C-alpha cells in the first residue's frame, strides 16, 4: 500500500470538531492575518484561504458583516465582494498560474453550505490534470501546495 504524507493537515483535522463561532467573523477580527490565513480585508469584505481546500489555493470571499443571505447584502457589500473576487482571480493568475477556476456560492445548508449563517463565495483554482483517479478510487484528494506557501505568495501581493 502506498501512503501520501501531508503532516501539515493534522492540526486542522484534530480540531475540526472543536470549532465554535463563525470562521469569517473570527478571521475579520483577528489581528494576525497569518493565524487565520486572511489574505485581504477591506471596509466591507475579506478573503481567506479555506483550511479544508478542495484544491490548492481554494479561497473564500465574504462580507465582514455576519449575514447569511446574498439578497440581504447592501449594494456596497455586494460590489466589494465582486471587486475582491476580481482582485483575487488576477493575483491567483499571476502567482499560481492556474488553467481555470471554479467560482460559486452554496446558499443554505441544503445547497451544501458548511457555514450557512455567513454568506461567502468560493474561488477554486484549477489546473489541467488536477483531477485524477485518487478521489474516485482512493477517496483521497491530493493538495500539492501548503496553505502557508499559498498564503505567503498571495498575501504579499495583496499588501504590496
Can you tell me the CATH architecture?
A: 2-Layer Sandwich
- Give the beta-strand count: 5
Rounded to an integer, what's the Rg over CA atoms?
16 Å
Count of DSSP H/I helices: 5
Low-confidence stretches: 133-141
Topology:
Blueprint: H1 10-15, H2 23-29, E1 38-41, E2 45-49, E3 59-63, H3 75-96, E4 100-104, E5 121-126, H4 134-138, H5 147-158
Antiparallel strand pairs: 1-2, 2-3, 3-5, 4-5
Concise overview:
The chain is α+β, with helices and mostly antiparallel strands. The protein is built from five helices and five strands, in the order ααβββαββαα.
What keyword list fits this structure?
160 residues, alpha+beta, HIT family, subunit A, 32% helix
Explained architecture:
The chain has a 5-stranded antiparallel sheet with strand order 1-2-3-5-4, sandwiched between helices. It contains 5 helices and 5 strands; from the N terminus they run H-H-E-E-E-H-E-E-H-H. The chain has a single domain, classed as HIT-like (HIT family, subunit A, 2-Layer Sandwich). The chain is α+β, with helices and mostly antiparallel strands and 160 residues long.
